[in-house]
Structures are given as structure tokens and as C-alpha cells.
């Protein structure tokens, strides 16, 4: 089975989900025959039958059941969902990283659609839509009452068609923005030389990510005419994507060894994923930039590089999505597919980042320390998000130890956490985090800082 | 009404207001296989049970599924899990351990506004108009009403000593045994020589009885006849269909109160007032607000349609649907589902439209508030009304409190009193029939 690490809370918004048919047979064999299940199914069928016969207006059976399935899956966690046959077909087309739309990752908040990030080079990005914007209306109709999937389906459409989004920002009048839909080709890897330092940005982990990285490195080598003085890997606002892509990307930096391990319900189906031997960037200093919107596959890459001591992680604590979703086709996809959280993943040192995120080695903020809250939504803020097992264990410990609290190293780190804020008058668009990464590589302090962290 | 089902016109926004509960519906045969997608549902349930990252409770999954499906139907349909269902049935009886008194704060003391005749306080000689100055020897002074009442309430069977002051008498200590008392569904008082009753909801099965008794008391207090009555339904979010019919019946001499219709026109049921009217010549003003919903709209609508009362206030919420609470076999909770729409005697559905008052009166200053109200038609997935003709409050027709009007006084109530005491009452009644 191919695993997917969907983007933050996104339901089929960007079309970045792998699928496979490999696991169906295995699942069928494991079908349990709990009598409780049948009893509950009876209850369900009973209610559905009554709705069909007695509801005040006629109800379409298919819609009713689909709403039920979505209700059930939403009660599990924010990343499990049902993909209906139409969406599943679309999803298959999109795994390549190409789809027709306006190009943004979205989530839902307070009933509104919230932009997680516009995709580079998309109509949304060109029109100035920003992370954190709220979409309150689509073509003049409110999004309230729509599920995220429904809203996304309305925003999407055919090439050349236009869609008008009403965008609300805090402290601004809502504005209508009209966008022309088109095939959004997800150039997910971009590169350039910034102040003499090679810089690579990965915006999403679709199937083009790893090949794009290899190409970017080759191009950068040509640009600097030889050895790379260092590389900044920018994973900020990267909401994740395919698990296998995160392994391949990590392989560019690591010479074999574990990148990540995943564990299912009983811990029985533990699986370890290792980097390929040999590394593309041997001996090249690496600074990984992360922020609060770096999630899932981004956190795997940052976590592996951090845990293996391969580079320095800079920025702010990441989103904290430590779960893996499987895309399970139903009856070969004729009934759509089930996207279900089946595993947690662990960084090479064995930690789960679910709900906690990756703490950078060097905290650097984009925003001034002006007392205003610039933090964004994180996994722990999502409704029904699954708990970190470590958090659960800590609760248990405090009970058995008679209330004696053990100061964990994590707590200590938090106390000592020093955040580097941009100086007064710094223009936010100048990107303080990136400036600090460039400065670190240029200063020659990189080796010393890395060595300090090893001790 | 159908003897089989308990109809509920429950709170406009939440399921917690369900009070109505009556009889079980015999389970119908289920032809589950005809649901094409039920198999997909069963498949997904099985996969979730075996593959989800954490162990799952099947019951919780089914609850999530039912809520997902029902919430999409409309804002008033939902699944009621067994524990909640039991609690709601208890709450419908609204029993608590107390003394059977209704109180207000006056001059820092608790004033008895009403003592239930069957309550222990009444039995111990406490009457409306008495004051309570201390509870268990501790002075009430300086406490707010909630704190003060907290000390009076307690477990049924436990005694409490209250210091009672009857005007022009010496204070006396009275020990009263707390008892299970039914909370009264209404409040009443004399307002400037007129009768005034507040109906907070229609959830109580004794509402009509309580109201009849309150009218008797008011009649006595007003010297044998109530010259005019104000029925305050502001903020009343509804309740039991049967109660809205029987309350309307108090003021109407037979005839239709409302009709309800299910999916097919053939399902139409008509509800009639009993013959004979309690107080035939008494003028009535019904006070309504945007928070008046459901059963409250039935009462206001029937009295207005039948020309029996003048409706004053703001356009009502507009919930024109009836929910049935259907207990599920095997103690599996209940299904609360919209099964019917209802229509006022003139055949109008108030769904999404509400009742338009004969005299529009705002409680607050003209501050733009008119345009910012949550109403039924602003709820997600609300049922639509087939009647889409214009039905907005006409701004110029709205009476606003004058600038000098004291903020702590009730302008809508004041206007209701003015209407009852002048010829405007008859003018507004005449205007109703002009429209018809």
C-alpha cells in the first residue's frame, strides 16, 4: 500500500494523494464479525429507513449515507475522510501533481474556508490571496453550512472558467477576487542563489518533489560552478504530501540509515523506512527552514535531518501532524475510497511529533516580538486531533509518582528557548528567517553550532 | 393529534430544549438492502474498526454517522444518544427540591412574587408579597438573587429555615421542608392595571393549567375582571405542539388553530380549539421578538389570524417545522426528526418568514440592530418556504424608544400597555381584517 500524508486538514483540495488497490484482499480477510457491529448497523439502518419514510421532504438515499460516512469519519480525526467515486477519479488524475483549479491549500475554521497557503505560480497566488485569508463566499454564496469537500468542489472547475471568491481578512473590508481556473502545474521545487547561498524551496511533497530536488541540486551546482558552500532547504508552509517522497528527499541528505518509522494500532505492523546509501549533498552544510505551517512529510524530513545530526533546523516549531493516512479504494474505486489514519510515524530517535511538532535548533521568528499573536493554527488546535502518546504517558506518570513531577528535558528546553526576532523596523517581506539562514552559512559558525548540538 | 408520536416544536437552535416525550412508535420493518450505499457504509465501518490507528468504539462511530447524516437534513434533526435521552425526559418534568416559590430581588431582599399552592412554602403560611430577609439565620443583604436562591434550594426532605417578613408585621423564622416541586411554566403579575403573563417556553406539560390558574389569580387581583391581557412570548423558543394548541384554545371559541402537513398533502392534520372561550371580551396583546420560535409562533399566529389578539414587537424567528421524537428500540436513544411543516389558520407557513407583528416595536434604540439577527432562514441547511414573496420588516413602520426613554425600562411592554389602554387596540385589530 502506498501511504499518503495529506496536507493539513485538506480534503482533496490540492489533489496530492496516492492510491493503490493492493490492500483490498488483505482487508477483506480481516473483517471482524463482532455482534456489536451488527447491532449498531441495525440501529443505523433503522434510522436511515425512518428518515427515508417519514422525513418532511423526500431525501436522496445516496446523499444521506454519504453524509453519514463523513460524519463518522470526521468524528475520528481531521484527516480521515470519504472520497466519493467522482472525487476519486479526479484524485487519480491529480496524483501527478496537476489539476484544474485556482491553486491553494485550504482548511475549515469556524465554518469558513481558510487558506493554508496559495500554491506558487497559481491563479490564487497571482491574485494576492495569502495564507490565513478566509473565504466567506464563493460566487456570492455563503460557504457556511458547506463541508470542506463541498466548498472545494465548488471552487474547482474547468479550465478557463472564472470563480469569484469573497476574501475576508482581519481588520479589512471583505473583497471579491475573481480568478480564472486553469491547470495548476505544481512546480513544487524552486531554487535560486540568494546572496551567494544556494536555496531550495519545496512547497509540497507530490510525485514531482524528489525528481525536482535532484534537478534543482544539479542546476545549483552549475550556477555556483562546483562545490556548494551550503544549502538552505525551505520547508516553510509546506503542508506535506506523499510519504515515499519524504523518504527520497531525505535520501539526498543522508547516507543510508533510518529516516522514519511508522506504527499502526497494535505497534505490530511497525515499519522502518531507510535512506538510500550514498548522498547527493555529501559534506554540504544544510539549514532547514520550518514554520508553524510545515506539516506531515515536511516534519519527517526536518525530523530526520535533525535527529541524524545532518543539519541545523531553523525557524519556528512545526505544525505537529504525526499521523499517516492510507488511501483505501472501495471495491476497486467504484465506491470511491477511504482516507483513513492508520499509522503514527516516529523520527529516527523514536519520538512522535503528533501535536507537538519539531522544535527548531535555532528559533528564529519572521515577525517582530510586538506582543501580537502571529502564531497559526497547529495540529493540536484542530477539532478531534489525536493525542500524542507521550502526552498521555506523562499524565499517567504523574498519577503513579504521587504528583512528583519530573522536569523533563523538554520542559527545560522550553525554559531556555530564545527566539531571534527581527530587529525594530525590519520589513517582514525581507524574510528574517531566510536572512538568518544565509548569515549562518556565510559566517562559518555552522560546524560549531552543529557540534554544540551533538553534545 | 396522532396518539402514537410525541410532537415537539422544540427550541429553535438546540436539542437540549426537547421536553416533549410521549409514546413509543412501534418499529417499522426495515428493508435495508434497498439502500444501495448501505453496503459501502458497512464496508467502511469494518475497515475503520480493524485499521484505524487507535481502537475505536463502534457506538461512537455510529453516533458520528447519525449526526453527520441528520445535521445535513436541517438544523433541528438530530440523534439523541441513550444517556441524553434519559436526561431530557427527566428535565421535561422539571422537578427540583425547593419551596415552591417564585422570587425577585427588591430592596436587597428576596420578594416572593408567587407561591405555588401545592408547595411547602404556601403550606407553611408564606404568601406572595412576603419578603425573605435571611436564610438559616444569615442575612440576604449584599447577595445577588442567584446566591440567595442557592441557599434556599437543596435536597428534597431537608428542612431550611427562612426569616420571613410580611409587610407591617414582625419578621418570623419559619422552618420549611424542601420538597420535589414542579417549576411553574409561567410568571404573572399585574402591570399598570392590566394582566401580564410571561410564557418562557412551551416545554411544560402543565403550561395550560398553570396559565388558567394565573388568569384566575389575576382576575381576583384586578377586582374580578382582567381589563386587558399581555401575553409575553419574547425569547420563547417553543416546545410542545399540544401546549400551543391548548393555550390558543383558551382564547378561541372552537375553529382551527393550526394544521400540520407531512411529505404528502394527504398527511394533513388539523388542530382545533375547544368550543367555548375562557375570557371572550378581554383584549389581548401578544408580545413577540426575533427569538420567539415554533410553538410561540403558533400561538401568536393563530390569535392574529383569527383576529383575537394584536401582535406587538418584532418579526419572529420563523421555525415552521415540527419534529417528532421517535424512541429507538433496544434503549438506543431516540431520533429527533423534522416530519411536518405547520400552517397558521389562514394557511400560511411561517417557515423562514415568521410572524409579522401588527405593530412593529423595537426594544432598543435605532442602532442598526434591525439588520443583524439570527433567524431560521440564516441557519445552514434550513428548510425553504415555497412562499418567497417579500416579507421584510418595513423600517419606517418600526417604533423605537425615544432618546429619553430609561434604558432599564421595557419599551415594548410600555407600548403594549399603551395600545391596550387606548383606541389603538381596536384600530390595529381593524387593520388586520382589512388585510384579509
TrEMBL record, chain A:
This entry's Gene Ontology molecular function terms read:
endopeptidase activity; serine-type peptidase activity
Q: Which domain of life is it from?
A: Bacteria
BP GO terms, sorted? proteolysis; signal transduction
Arranged from A to Z, the UniProt key words for this protein are:
Hydrolase, Protease, Serine protease, Signal
* Signal peptide as annotated in the record: 1-25
Quote the InterPro entries the UniProt record gives.
ClpP/crotonase-like_dom_sf, CtpA/B_N, PDZ, PDZ_6, PDZ_sf, Peptidase_S41A, Tail-specific_protease
Keyword Hydrolase among UniProt keywords: yes
Q: Cellular component terms, GO, for this chain's entry?
A: outer membrane-bounded periplasmic space
Q: Pfam families per the record? A: CtpB_N-like, PDZ_6, Peptidase_S41
Ranges in coiled-coil conformation = none
**Where is the PDZ domain positioned along the sequence?**
88-156
The text of the family note is: Belongs to the peptidase S41A family.
Q: Sorted alphabetically, which NCBIfam families does this protein's record hold? A: prc (TIGR00225)
Protein's UniProt name:
Peptidase S41
Instruction: Write down the species.
Output: Algimonas arctica
TrEMBL record, chain B:
Q: Name one GO molecular function term.
A: endopeptidase activity
The GO biological-process annotations, alphabetized, read as: proteolysis; signal transduction
Q: Does the keyword Aminoacyl-tRNA synthetase apply?
A: no
Give every PDZ domain span.
Answer: 88-153
Identify the Gene3D superfamilies for this entry: 2-enoyl-CoA Hydratase, Chain A, domain 1, 2.30.42.10, 3.30.750.44
Alphabetized PROSITE patterns for the sequence: PDZ (PS50106)
| Keywords assigned by UniProt, alphabetized | Hydrolase, Protease, Serine protease
In terms of domain of life, where is this protein from? Bacteria
Which Pfam families does UniProt cross-reference here? CtpB_N-like, PDZ_6, Peptidase_S41
User: Which cellular components does GO assign to this protein?
Assistant: outer membrane-bounded periplasmic space
Query: What family, per the record?
Result: Belongs to the peptidase S41A family.
Record protein name field: Peptidase S41
The scientific name of the source species is Algimonas arctica
